Each structure stands twice: as structure tokens, then as C-alpha cells.
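TODO from last week: model Band 7 domain-containing protein.
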Amino acid sequence: MAKPNISPVTTPGTSTRLGGALGGKFTGALKSVVVIGVLAAIVITLLNVVRTVASPADEVAVHKGGGIIEAPNSKGCVAANSREIRRPGDNYYWYPASQRTYNFTGGEGADHGPFSVVSKDYQPLDVPGSVEFTLNVDCEVLTRFHDAIGNRYGAYYTGSDEWSETPRGWQTMLDLYFGPALDATLDRVAKKYTWKELYADPTIKDEMNRAVNEQLAALIQQKMPGEDEFFKGFSALIQQPQPAETLVQALGDEEAAKAQAAAAKAKAVADAETQQAKAVADAEAAKKAAEAQVAVKEAEAKIAKLEAQIREQEIEPFGTVRDYNNWLAIQRGLNPYQPTYGGSVLAPGSTPTP
């Protein structure tokens, strides 16, 4: 059986309208993509061109004009802890707004070695220490500092958050302005005292601290251009002046000799006092011994006197000592007489026999 001849029925113009609709939608989407891309490119370009500049809490930036045709005029400052739009071609110079230290101990990380001074008795000593200060960050003053000094020595950073390390130019600037002023101030005080006083008297350090705090600003200002006070808030901490090792050794030997002499003198005094005490004690003992002997002799004399008195009382009844002695002899069975005839020996108070 033959298949029927079936053909699709179309309306004139329908194909053309469908293709046009599809083409129009594609073209509109493409235009949107292009517009979005252009806008994104513009935003990216603006982000690259329009940047910000910021100063942390302890820094201030001096703002200078720049670019191809613009002169480096002052445009103010970026204050501490603030942010502003960075202008294309302009330059920024950061300086410290916090307290800084000029260290002249000569140790690791120090800005300078100890300053050499000469004492009243012409002996050299080294004086270590440090001085704390702050840079005057008033925008107008800081800008003049940058123009006159900071820019000359490169005493700045061209980026923020870098002041944890000291720029070489900042170090050079401190050595040129702080070094001579400190040297002159410390030497002026040192010339009033001998080297032993400077080395041993701690109150002289206090005088040096006062002198630095009072005079350093004026001495630095003498070398500064203009009348601006670029540095302020000086606070010195001077350590004990150090003489040469030979002087310290000589002083140690001298003190040791004094100590030995004092010890020898004390021993001699102690020995003399001991001998004197012994002599006094011996004399006292001899005196007491003599007094004891005198007392014994006096007692013996008294006893003898008493015995004599007793004997006198015993003799008294016999009349004479001879009669008494004869009586004693008879009492002991002795014959005190020569042989006699017709005689007799009588006891005291006895009557002869007729």
C-alpha cells in the first residue's frame, strides 16, 4: 500500500520572524556582557589609580606634590592614626611621632659610643648614657624640618610601619646635631671635678642629667636653621663616668694600701691597748699584793704586840724577866741556877720554908 504524501504546512514569514527573535536576544546578552566587562575594567583601573595612604599611631607623613608637571610643593601631612587618598605622583615622607632614644653607651644597637671628657685634674674619662626625646610633629614645623634637614640627610622612610629600624639618614642627622651638643655639655660639667670624684660620686651623674636636660635643646638649636624647635622633651640618663683602666687599677692599689695601713694601725693600737691594759692589770695586782703584804705585816705586828702584852702580863708577877725565865726553865725541869747550898727556888708568891 503506498504511503500518503504528507508535507508540513507552513505559514509564509514564520521562519524569518523566529530567526530574528533569536538573533536579537543573543545580541542584547552580548551587549550586557560587554558593558559589564567595561565597567569592571573601569573599576579595576580606578582601584589601581586611586589608592590610600595611612599613618600608624606613632608616625606622621609629610605630603609633597609630584608628577610630571607639578612642583614638589607642600600639601600638608598625614597625621598619626589617619588615612587619606593617595594622589597620583605625590610623595610621602614618614617621621616618628613617638618618643625616640639617642643611645651613646657603645653597646650593641647603640647610636654612638660613650663621650670622652677631661676631668679637673686633666684625666680622660668615658661617659655613657642615653637621651630620650620627641620630634616636633606639628605639621608646619615638621614640613620645615623635612625641607631643611630631613630631606638633606634622608632621615625618613618612604613607607609607613618601617620605624622599627632606624634609617641611616636619621642616624647621620642625630650624630651631627646631638653628638657635639652632648659632648660639649658633659665635658663642661666634668671639668669641675677630679677624676676620682667623677668616678666615685654618684651625685655628679645627677648634675650631668640636669645639665643635659637644660642645655641640650639650646645647643642643638644653635646649629638648626630658623627658629623652630624641632626636638623637645629631652630626658637624659647618664651612667657613671669610666676612667682609664690604669687609673682604676692605681686607685684600687691605693685603696688596698690604705686598707692595709689602716688594718696595721688598728692592730698596733689594739696591741698597745692590750699591753697597756695588761700593765695596768699587773700594776693593780702588784698594788693589791703589796697591800696584802702590808696587811699581813700589820697583822703580824699586831699579833706580836698582843703577844708582847701577854708576855708582859705574865712576867709582871715575877718582877724581872730573868726571874720569869728561870721559872720557865724550872717548869720544864731545868735548873737555871748554879749549884748552891742552903738555897731554894721559890715560885712567885711562895714563902720560903724556915
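Done. The helical segments are 14-49, 139-153, 168-190, 195-200, 203-223, 245-315, 321-331.
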